[in-house]
Amino acid sequence: MLLSDTLYETYSAIVVNKSRSALTILGIVIGIGSVIAMTAIGQGAQNSIAANIQAIGSNLIIVRPGNQQSPGSVVSQGQGSAQTLSQADVDAIRSIATGIKAVAPEVSSRYQVTSKGKNTRTSITGVTSEYAIVRNIEITSGTFLSDEQEKRLAKVAVLGPETVTALFAEDIDPIGQQIRANGVIFTVIGVTKARGGSGFGSNDDIIFIPMTTAQQFLTGSPSISVINIAATDSDSMQSVQEQVNAAILKEHRITDPTLADFRITNQADIVETASTITGTLTALLGAVAGISLIVGGIGIMNMMLTSVTERTR
User: Fold this and answer.
1) CA separation (Å) from 306 to 97, 105, 293, 301, 309?
2) Helix (H, G, I), strand (E, B) or coil at 185
3) Closest residue by Cα to residue 85 from 274, 280, 275, 252
4) CA 259 to CA 264: how far, in whole Å?
5) What contacts 24+ positions apart, CB below 8 Å, involve 281-286?
6) How many whole angstroms separate alpha carbon 198 and alpha carbon 187?
7) Could you read off the pLDDT of 252-283 as tens digits, one per residue?
């Protein structure tokens, strides 16, 4: 049989059985399309989460307190109740000669904040001037916190865009306005650029104040919640993490690393964990799409079997 005859017979069979042909094509399109769509959704979610994690900082290493289980205890210390990090630890980390771009400790808690009849409950984070470098914070208006303001315990604040919306009307410039938190009045000196969510909450619903001011007037404690460290590049992150671990162990006079009263994580670990979770999600979506493809294939087989049976008879 010539190729032209084969093509003509195929065309005739498709035209004669239009409904059957349409349903067969629909099954193929739905099956293949579902696989592509589900895989794309999973990959898109993975890329989005990775991008949000990268947005919180570059080559970031994070030290948190109280994540090791005490000897003989059943319950490990939680980060919220632990107060094992101090300024001495920050100084010990800053003494590391190579591999560190900036070190930014922070003190964070949630407070009710009011301003001219409006109020919101948000996170107030006491930071140093280096925090903007470590966490890639950009300012849209005003300025960020300075070393001088930290030294003199200045009552100034930098607001995230969501906090600005919650506390002020649209026609009011927040720069120079006053807000009150825990009975303390702060003057707004800056507004940060919107960064969106990180998967751990919104980066825009936040207020930054000098760390010394937060310790003096809000927390009443010299302890530090988190120490953020920016490595000079991704290649030096592992080396810096090991040096930081050794420095804090020495400062805390801990000889057994398994008894450390702090935990160190880096950005690569967070991205890897998120990628593992989203990879599982992608596999699940792919399996669901595969079932759709199998169902579509069964439908196509049914159509083809009907056609063959009719010709055989």
Assistant:
1) 78, 72, 20, 8, 5
2) strand
3) 252
4) 13
5) 281/42, 281/45, 281/46, 282/39, 282/42, 282/43, 282/45, 282/46, 283/42, 284/42, 285/38, 285/39, 285/41, 285/42, 286/35, 286/38, 286/39, 286/42
6) 27
7) 999 888 888 898 888 766 666 666 777 777 77
pLDDT over 60 (residue 204): yes
Enter the tokens of residue 39.
């895989």
Residues in the chain: 313
Asked if 119 contacts 168 with a C-beta cutoff of 8 angstroms, the reply is no
pLDDT digits (tens, 9 = 90+) for 93-139: 998 878 888 899 999 999 999 998 899 999 999 999 999 988 888 99
Contacts of 31 (CB under 8 A, 6+ apart): 292, 293, 294, 295, 296, 297
Cα 183–chain centre separation: 32
Query: How far apart (Å, rounded) are the C-alpha atoms in residues 278 and 107?
Result: 31
Instruction: Tell me the pLDDT of the chain averaged across its residues.
Output: 82
CA–CA–CA angle 64, 148, 210 (5° rounding) = 35
Residue appearing with tokens 């800056």: 190
Strand partners, 32: none
Residue 159 phi, psi dihedral angles, 5° rounding: -105, 145
Q: Quick one: tokens of 209?
A: 């104040």
Q: Tell me how far apart the alpha carbons of residues 32 and 114 are, in angstroms, rounded to a whole number.
A: 55
- What residue type is assigned to position 163 of the chain? T
Closest CA relative to residue 248, chosen from 14, 91, 47, 35: 91
Residue 210 in tokens:
């000098």
Residue 237 is predicted with a pLDDT of 83
Please identify which residue in the block is written with the tokens 């590049």: 233
Mean pLDDT, range 161-169, rounded to an integer: 93
Rounded-to-integer distance, Cα 204 and Cα 135, Å: 13
Helical axes 3-16 vs 18-55, angle rounded to 10°: 90
- C-alpha to C-alpha distance for 249 and 247, rounded to whole angstroms: 6
The residue among 183, 157, 188 whose CA lies nearest residue 173 is: 188
